[in-house]
Amino acid sequence: MHATRRRNESARRIVEGDVEILPLMNLFVVLIPMLLLSAVFLRIAVIDMSLPAGAGESAAPEEDPLSLTVRIEEDRYVVEGRGIPDGVVLRDGGGEENAAELSERLAGLVAARPGTEDVVILSRTDTRYEEIVRVMDAAREAGLSRASLGSTDGAGREDAP
Amino acid sequence: MTRPRNKRTRKGTDTIRMTSLMDILVVLLLFLLKSFVVEGDLMTPAQGVELPESSTEDPPRESLVLAVTKDALLLAGEPVMGMREIAAAEGLLLPALSRRLEEAAARRGELARLRGSAAETQALATIQGDRAMPFLVLQKLMYTLGQAGYDNVSLAVVRES
After folding, report:
1. Domain A68-159 coded CATH 3.30.420
2. A contact test, residue of B135, B138, B157 with most A CBs within 10 A
3. Fewest C-beta in 10 Å: which of A69, B29, B68, B136?
4. Distance from CA of A111 to the nearest CA of B (A)
């Protein structure tokens, strides 16, 4: 009986000698809401753009050795440029893998003509923004850092100076 | 045999079992600290805009923000035009937006004059476009911005993780 009580007392002492947790809890209670409020779950970035073709100051396409163009069509991307024998055509289902293929193709063209940085992305007027951004990504990954946008349709072009 | 003794010790000490709670808090704290960004001037996406994803790394800069939601165009958070108006607009210039941009430029010039600072800094504009926005809208926006003197336009995107 006596022995068990002593055992109990020592056990209690061990429990009472626990880590003082309250200040830490206070810290957490303050820190966590603060960090939660300032947390950024959606990281926003930007793509720097030149103006669409014909809308801004005159670019000098004559100086560009390749004048590379990617045309976004309904079901394919058409890559055109001076010195490229045939427009490279890629079937497209709107998927990521096609963009990767396009990027590879562009990278090959850039490797053949180092120093090429400009690309014109021509879209139809109803091309989705998402699709354009995907093509711009593909071009940037291929090393074409200066992309400009243009329209394949004549509509609206007559306004350009 | 051991059970009743345990029961007694617990009764005697009266402490809440904090360990599991502390585990959660520590993990949460570490996660939040990791995602903590020390960038004061962050861009927040406008309500109702679903930005496209991109692999770009450029951070957003302080600029005039044009947001294109599914049914309206917002300039610095205030509605300017409806999407139908934009689609119906003849040519590439959007008169309502043009007017608002002029007002904004005048206000900024006034502010610069009052502050006694030199001529206004470079005119920067960021377009937060919904991923389903058709290219024609983007073209009209960029044309109108270019006409209003905003030569540097960037496109806001969500950074791919």
Report:
1. yes
2. B135
3. B29
4. 21
